[in-house]
Amino acid sequence: MKSFNYKTATSTKEAIKLFSGRSAFLAGGMTLLPAIKLRLAAYSDLINIKKIKGLSGIRASSKSLKIGSAITHAAVASSKEVIKSIPSLALLADGIGDPQVRNRGTIGGSIANNDPAADYPAACLALNATIHTNKRKIPADKFFKGMFETDLKKGELIEAIEFEVPEKSSYTKFPNPASRYAIVGVYIAKLKKEIRVAVTGVESCVFRCKKIEKALTDNFSESSIDNINISSNGFNSDIHASAEYRAHIIKVMAKKAVSTC
Amino acid sequence: MANVNIKINGKKISKEISDNILLSDFLRDKLLLTGTHIGCDTSQCGACVVHLNGNSVKSCTTLVADCDGCEVTTIEGLSSNGKMHVMQESFKKHHGLQCGFCTPGMVMSAIDLLQKNKNPNEQEIRDWLEGNICRCTGYQNIVAAVKDAASKM
Amino acid sequence: MVSLIGSKIERKEDKKFLTGKGRYTADINLVNQTYAYFVRSPHARAKILNVNITKASKSPGVVKIFTGEEIASEKIGGLIAGWKIVSQDGKDMKVPNHPPLAKHAVNYVGDHVAIVIAETLEQAKNAAELVDVSYKIHKAVVNTADAMQSEAIYEGIDQNLCFDFILGDKRKTEDSFSSADKIVKLDLRNNRLIPNAMEPRACIGDYNSSSDELTLYTTSQNPHLSRLVLSAFGGIHPEHKFRVVAPDVGGGFGSKIYAYAEDAVAAWASKKIERPVKWVAERSESFLSDCHGRDHITHVELAIKNDGKIIGLKVDTIANIGAYASLFATVTPTYLYAPLILGLYDIPTAFINVKAVFTNTAPVDAYRGAGRPEATYLIERIVHKAANEIGMDQAEFRRKNFIKKFPHQQCLVHNIDSGDYVAHLDKALEISDYKNFENRKSESAKKGKLRGLGFSTYIEACGIAPSAVVMSIGCGVGLWESAEVRFNATGNVTVFSGAHSHGQGHDTTFAQIVGDRLGVPMESIDVVHGDTDKGPFGMGTYGSRSLAVGGSAIAKACDKIIEKGKKVAAHMLEGKPEDIDFKDGDFILKNSNKKKTIAEVAFACYLPGQFGEIKSPLPPGVEPGLKETSFYDPVNFSFPAGTHICEVEVDQNTGETQVVKYTAVDDFGTIINPMIVEGQVHGGIAQGIGQALYENGHYDESGQLITASYMDYTMPRADNFPQIKVDYTTTPATSNPLGSKGCGEAGAIASPPAVMNAVIDAIGADVSMPATAEKVWNAIKKNDYKKSAA
User: Domain B86-152: what homologous superfamily?
Assistant: First the structure.
């Protein structure tokens, strides 16, 4: 693996101080390390943020659930607070990658990476999350910008993700048979004020499907999805699924999500 | 270069390491614990699974620097006094291995499953093993071995 | 004494693998070792204009960089096709030169351009990035179907045609079609597979200049054959000074039969730099440069009578063999394929034409089953369709057409010695609860799932193969196998085999044979293989041959031991050799209570004398020592056969298909260790289900391999499979002393059509492999459209 300096920060402040132009923050490393290994990325410094205490708490209230960015998927999946407050989020975490990835990979890392087929970005959009960084609070709607692209500035560090606790919610994933990432993932959340439907795996970046949101707002039932016409325009098309097929699967997954809400 | 202190298979070691060395390479090349295998470069095959502080992780995607102060258990650390771990015995009894290459990772992963779920059903075993690819066995005897080990652990 | 034959005995080799003490090639590190990294072509087809290594050579840690230029100037030979095929016009097949490092042109993505050798792997990789290769890119030939119409890749090989092979009686077959009541037609694609043994290939070349000895450690299924090829054709090093060691090998499935470019170059480079050169493939390199499997397109027609009797079969196949003709690439789609298109049916006449084409893709060679899965796929798919078209039950259609009398001379090549196809069909019907399928189908329907059932009644030709036969049809070597059974003075036994286990459990199965024959306990028997310096030359492990051929060699060597033992025991017991019986490890003098154990005889053979008396236990003329060698050449192929029945559930909404029930009843002849055999069946079926539903080696139009990692190539996981039910019927092979037929490839041969027939049965429409969710969904949609239109 190409060489880099490994530094450990014990506070957010220190992490920012250690950060330079060619640094990356290292949490679980589940996407960062393979990228370096495959020579797709190179850095001068990796700054370990796992020792920063403030990044590893889970706090639930009746309105929101706040998860520290360095919390692993396994910890989210098995957290009593999460299971009680937003069970669909625990289930989502339990379906990311495989057990070994879940033991290392973190929620902050997943969101900062914003893989177009990752699961957590869909949760953030559907659950109207707020991304807390060392500098500001970013609403999820403004956070995910494009393929592997977020609103984070260089050296800005995610500290926590705060989800709105929904009345009910569900996430269903149609996985890529090889990578097990989402070909289509649909997260449906019935929030206090609105219904949100987030779709991942389908375009270059996670997005909200306004058509389904509207249909479900009118009538929160599986059947209301039947008559929606999802255009495949701009959808990903690859050896695993054409754009047209993805459009179809969105509806199938959305119906399943409604039925399991 | 930095110094790390790691307890590996119950033995404390203190070593100067380069910042970019992966746990899998460290185990294989520096400690000559070659039971941990490398079968892919995208963190998917699971041949390199070891335990880090009791949890199964892919050592090919773990920096040694991240393991400072941690406990690592590899396939070589499972037997005690020449007696194999229940899981190892069960793999042997049920013919849960053929070429043996995926086996160490498979065994380490399966033990972690039973730490988290004492009595998994067949589907839960199959789901858990998602991160371990075997090309020889068709998994059937691996599943049988894990199930039987669960009844004995 | 309980017979060791047929006993479920836990494997002797397991403990080392389970405790992390296996020794694979990548685990070996030699003193003063260097690390190699290959510069590979990023283009599918290009001329090499220039390779500039100036900058790379100056990169830190670089020891040496070699290019195709040097390899060529040293007269290192190319990699060879080991089987000559003759085209229907009587001309020999055409094959391009396959240099270990390309000099003038690269012909697939991953083709080898240069080897960079450095003090560390990282340094080698860094320097490899600095090797500056100028290419002139040409349009790649990728598609199997269009290859013959595309621009010729090689000068002198028109239409990219390696050979145009025929087998069978064309006229008679045409006649059968004229008298048919019905002709059933089908177009099939046998998808390209990437073998993916879990251990990536690796090798270390280690040259000792003082002794002029070259050692190559390599991940090989057949180290002796690799040495022969690298020595005789590669000119790497003389055979007697060249040792090839294949330590523990982590799976092969055919892909580790061949001596690869990396083997040749690492061995040669070690001689040049006089240091060990180690290379270990990264998985992405395995995807690009391991030999792939299958990749056929086929048109098949079956002539049948109204009563369901098959009267003729016609097949046209284009086989994609990739950029070069690899070792067994030419026999795989011909003699391992064409004779098997008849399946286990009594078909009076058939004709097949196979055109093998070169494309700018990785070489395609034998992969688990090699030719036989392709043959089984076509015959079982068309039989399924034929039974449907004339409205006959799948089982009855098959039963009607089975070969029923043995030996049976098929109309193409094979003379099948034994079998009972009705027996395994009936057993499979019973175990799979065939009669209640409709109930299960209704249950599935209640869940919104389409359930289908598919058969595969198959045969394969294994135990490869009688040397005189295979050499008469183009094979470059004989396919016998060797064994040496060596008693040690203290009564334990070392067995040397020319076969080489890479997961099959030879240490155990072979010891069971020896233990059974010689009455020696299992723990006193050790099996040695995988090292050309230990044991006699052997042909290796592939083609489900290790037991039928290699095991038979061991059995025959044991018999020679007993023969000699009888002479010695007779002398010791003061009787005649013909009066000695051998049973359970004892030589017993008839009509007496006098006996000698085989350990006592072995001891006497090695220490032939006693204190105070000049008297030898050995009869005059008998040499000391107790060690026998056998080279066993089979008299015929063996013919495993069986019935597999698969049930799938298809989600109508998504097209997702799950195998929900699978039954395999196989006839492998005599089974030595049922536990190991069952494991082989499971693994083979898993690979076959993988081919049918998940796996596909996909190149884009420019020749880039799209499925070049586990992110895109679907490797089946544990959650893709149901419990597989395995059972057996037995008709011993008559062609070898063990009666064994071979079991390693059966699952991969039988299962793809069983799965696909089930999918087609479920959705009522045709679909190609792999039957991915989207393809199945599209097929359902189209079918619905057809239904509503009709």
Answer: [2Fe-2S]-binding domain (1.10.150.120)
